[in-house]
Amino acid sequence: MSNERKPAWKKQNNNNRQNRYNKSRPPRQPRKPREVKVGPLEAEVINGDIERAIKELKNKMSKEGVITELKHKRFAEKPSEKKRRKHREALKKMRKSRGKKARQYKRKEQK
């Protein structure tokens, strides 16, 4: 069998092909975790008005997204639903930032 002639396409040097695709690469450096500086959410009680302080704290929590996150983590969420929700949030955020940019542009024109 070794004396048989091989077709032209089989005569290629396979070593070159392997080297081309199986190059040894240096190992990837692990990513550094982002440092997120988060201070405690606080609401100051002024003149014994606790209701006002609670309202203020709730506002701060909703702006930070703590309340929505708690709602989502309350029950198990399918990965597909989670993906959809994240996508919707990203679109919403993008639209919001576009609106801000447009308003800033209009203000510059007016001046």
Describe the 3D structure.
The model has no long low-confidence stretch (mean pLDDT 80). The relative contact order is 0.04. Among the domains are: 41-75, no CATH class; 79-111. It contains four helices and no strands. Helices cover 58% and strands 0% of the residues. By secondary structure, it is mainly α.
List the helices and strands and how they pair.
Elements: H1 14-21, H2 50-64, H3 66-74, H4 79-110
Offer a quick outline of the entry.
With 111 residues, the chain is mostly helical.
Give keywords.
111 residues; mainly alpha; 58% helix
Bin the strand percentage: under 5%
Please give the alpha-carbon distance between the first and last residues. Answer: 87 Å
Assembly status: single chain
Q: What profile does the largest beta sheet have?
A: none
C-alpha Rg (nearest Å): 30 Å
The DSSP helix count reads 4
Structural class from helices and strands? mainly alpha
Helical content (DSSP H or I, runs of 4+): 55-70%
